[in-house]
Design a protein that fits this description.
EC number: 6.3.5.2
Shape: globular
Pathway: Purine metabolism; GMP biosynthesis; GMP from XMP (L-Gln route): step 1/1
Number of strands: 18
Strand order of the largest sheet: 2-1-3-6-7-8
CATH class of the largest domain: Alpha Beta
Number of domains: 3
Protein name: GMP synthase (glutamine-hydrolyzing)
Radius of gyration: 24 Å
CATH superfamily of the largest domain: HUPs
Largest sheet: 6 strands, mixed
InterPro entries: Class_I_gatase-like (IPR029062), GATASE (IPR017926), GMP_synth_C (IPR001674), GMPS_ATP_PPase_dom (IPR025777), NAD/GMP_synthase (IPR022310), Rossmann-like_a/b/a_fold (IPR014729)
Distance between the termini: 42 Å
Function: Catalyzes the synthesis of GMP from XMP.
Structural class: alpha/beta
Helix content: 25-40%
């Protein structure tokens, strides 16, 4: 990496990510490292210009307050220390409430560290192309291309770097949103001319899920079956030595450091089998989610793919509540497509963080085509959140909701009722299963 770097040493602060993001917003690359990094390890990092010590209420382990190695203080790097609500540079002490953070860091990064404002997506892509080519050489790389933002951006970056040395495998498990698998084929096979293996395993997945109504069991079946299908396709290919993954920086942060507590484990951070036969290629591991999207835009991916909504791994399988049936799955898919289309027309697709429909496993009496009907309800959910730990409900204009309701009732089979979920998180969760 050619860009200048500010290293944040984790001494137990809750604000490590905020500091890292703030420095990157200034146009300088930043990275969080464990507090016990050695001088030798620090000097192996490229272009380090300064160090941020980020302490707080968690900077005590086994009853002892932790600190960095004394040699680092004398290693010649400018150092700023954030501890609770104070920031110190040499003998200068600053208050750090949130609105002053950017000014303090800007002064430190540019005046004390003399860092250059050279962190941007164009430079990042150029660096990664060089790194990928050096790592892979003339060997072949395999990528599971789900159609999600991370895997799509990894695919586009690898295509730019190594072209036909990449093979993408897209498994359609029958639980995708309307048109998503077709969009993956159109963009990557027809437009970017990637080596794309398309696997329609929808019947296989639905047969495995038949009669299963427990949400966790459904997730396990979908996850394990996906791995089996992917492994089967990988065995058909010759000469694959690398496996590409869409690991991004929050995955690494949430999986924990020696000081920070783990938020949740990620399968792609330390969760892969020890006997993995591939060497990993993870070109996005430095990026936050919005930076991944910016990278996708710079690479020329379509807007709707880059700004695709968060979508659970089990797909519509956890929005077709209870045991999955083809008729309810199709009702979820069609009603979701109507909701997305109308939100886009109203500009809500850029305002609302996540919106989708759910079809539960029960029916209610109604009237359709002047006759009694006994059909399923469709439930609409639209939420806003910053970190997905809590969520508020979007107050949708009544006219828009009415139009969506009318379309769902007129165009979706086996449905006679539309409801709007008004439950925030907590007490509800964002998804229903």
């Amino acid at each position: 990496m050619k860009q200048d770097m500010i290293v944040i040493l984790d001494l137990g602060s809750h604000h490590n990510t905020n500091i890292a993001r703030c420095i990157r917003d200034l146009g300088v690359y930043s990275e969080i490292k464990a507090h016990d990094i050695t001088v030798e390890e620090l000097k192996q990092l490229p272009n380090v210009k300064g160090i941020v010590l980020s302490g707080g209420p968690n900077n005590i382990i086994d009853g002892k307050e932790i600190d960095i190695a004394s040699e680092i203080y004398n290693a010649g790097y400018p150092i700023i220390s954030f501890e609770h609500k104070l920031a110190q540079v040499d003998n200068r002490t600053y208050p750090a409430n949130e609105e002053e953070l950017k000014d303090i860091l800007s002064d430190f990064v540019f005046n004390d560290c003399h860092a250059q404002k050279n962190w941007n997506m164009k430079n990042f892509i150029n660096d990664q192309v060089e790194i990928i080519r050096k790592q892979v050489g003339d060997k072949k790389v395999l990528l599971a291309l789900s159609g999600g933002v991370d895997s799509s951006v990894v695919a586009a970056l690898l295509i730019k770097a190594i072209g036909n040395q990449l093979t993408c495998v897209h498994v359609n498990h029958g639980l995708m949103r309307k048109g998503e698998s077709e969009n993956v084929v159109e963009v990557f096979k027809n437009q970017l001319h990637a080596n794309l293996v398309y696997v329609d395993a929808s019947e296989r997945f639905l047969n495995k899920l038949a009669g299963v109504d427990d949400p966790e069991q459904k997730r396990k079946i979908i996850g394990s079956e996906f791995i089996r299908v992917f492994e089967e396709e990988a065995r058909k290919l010759d000469g694959i030595e690398f496996l590409a993954q869409g690991t991004i920086y929050p995955d690494i942060i949430e999986s924990g450091t020696k000081t920070a507590k783990m938020v949740k484990s990620h399968h792609n951070v330390g969760g892969l089998p020890d006997d993995l036969q591939f060497e990993l290629v993870e070109p996005l591991y430095q990026l936050f989610k919005d930076e991944v999207r910016a990278c996708g835009v710079e690479l020329g991916l379509p807007y709707e793919m880059v700004y695709r909504q968060p979508f659970p791994g089990p797909g519509l399988g956890v929005r077709c509540l209870g045991a999955i049936t083809k008729e309810r799955l199709e009702a979820v898919r069609e009603s979701d497509a109507i909701l997305r289309e109308e939100f886009a027309k109203a500009g809500l697709d850029k305002k609302v963080w996540q919106y989708f429909t759910i079809v539960p496993d029960f029916k209610s009496v109604g009237v359709k085509n002047n006759a009694r009907s006994f059909d399923y309800p469709v439930i609409i959910r639209a939420v806003n959140t910053v970190d997905a730990m809590s969520a508020t409900i979007e107050q949708i204009d009544w006219a828009i909701l009415t139009k969506i309701t009318d379309r769902i009732l007129a165009e979706v089979d086996n449905v006679n009722r539309v409801c709007y979920d008004l439950s925030p998180k907590p007490c509800a969760t964002i998804e229903w299963e």
